[in-house]
TrEMBL record:
This is TIR domain-containing protein. GO terms for biological process: signal transduction. NCBIfam families: FxsC_Cterm (TIGR04276). Residues 372-396 are annotated as: Disordered. Residues 4-112 form the TIR domain. It comes from Actinoplanes awajinensis subsp. mycoplanecinus. InterPro entries: FxsC_C, TIR_dom, Toll_tir_struct_dom_sf. It comes from the Bacteria.
Amino acid sequence: MLYFFLSYAPDEDDIFVHRLYQDLSAEIIRRIGAEPQQVVGYLDDSGAGSWPVDARTALSDCQTFVALCSSKYLASERCGRYWGVFVDRIHGDGSDNGRGADSLIPVLWAADGLPEDVFHEPDLKVRPLRTPNGDDLRIMMRLRSHRAAYAAFVASLAHRVVEAAHAHRLPPAPAGTDPDAAVNPFDRRRHRHGVAGRSTKVYVVVAAGTREQMRAIRGDLRFYGLRREDWAPYQPVAPQSLAARACGIVSDRRLQSEVVPIESVAERLRAGLRRDILVLLVDAWAARLDDLEPALREIGRQDEEAVAVLVPASSDDVETSARRVELRSEVLKRFPGRSSWHDSLLRIGVESPDDFDADLSVAIAAAQRRAYRRGWGEQRPDPSRAGARRPVLEGP
């Protein structure tokens, strides 16, 4: 039996997709007591070229369809047709679709502005699967601190796959089924949600001092430059300014970014971020600068906005390490609403460039979810969907 077909958009973090495929296969093999070399799943890693013959066969015979959902997946004609063929198999089964629908397993791979219900099938009771903390799966896989959560997710997914495959056997697709001729249901959904026209912008703000300002506050000035935005707390390991590094992470998530002066933040927040995100990079030492106090106080009051705050504390910065507890306390005083913030939106004591990259990715994903919940809530409801339930992401 082929237990699962893993579907994902080409060039979508391929290394991590392959790792998920291998981990999921190993967990399923362990659960069913099969030989280690037994093939229990299929991963189409042929890219965007022609349809592989084995992919057609696997799509016809697999008992579950695991889709790694993202905006890129939604835009992929290939993924849409794969999805359509499998949904047709469920509809063509002729039995209770409430049971067969468990075989269709959407997984949130990357939010990236994706509406929560875009992968919902109106005629099927589809149960998407979420990670333990609700984070994007691709982000969770990158973090060493989330290894236990990732293992729990793989176990949950394997349980769902095995349970669905054994509880309700789907018959093969009809002979001659051609993915090229299948209907792509995502075409209509993209148009309905207007996904392609939506754009989230990430505003990067640096709360740090210039070298001249910091002379009166600390002794080691090598991390500072002529402008606030020149602050590079991880040098010499990472000499690039933190603002430039942050913009690179934003670009990796296929979002637009702009570095804006901290003096403009108060007005921007009063106007409302709507679907946009604010990333504040804070030097704990600079919390002592009087000219930063108003902006930090204003940001600290924005508990409901999509505001992510990261406070680096390089392990190579001896002076900062020696005053770590004192500096942390001063930072927290600038954010009186800290207790109500989701942990992933406030990262204090980020010790290395790699930790910064991972923490910023997680924070942006969390801020996106908050921004899009707010953004979609502002839209006028569609009368044709009145009374429709939003899908609840749950595990087995």
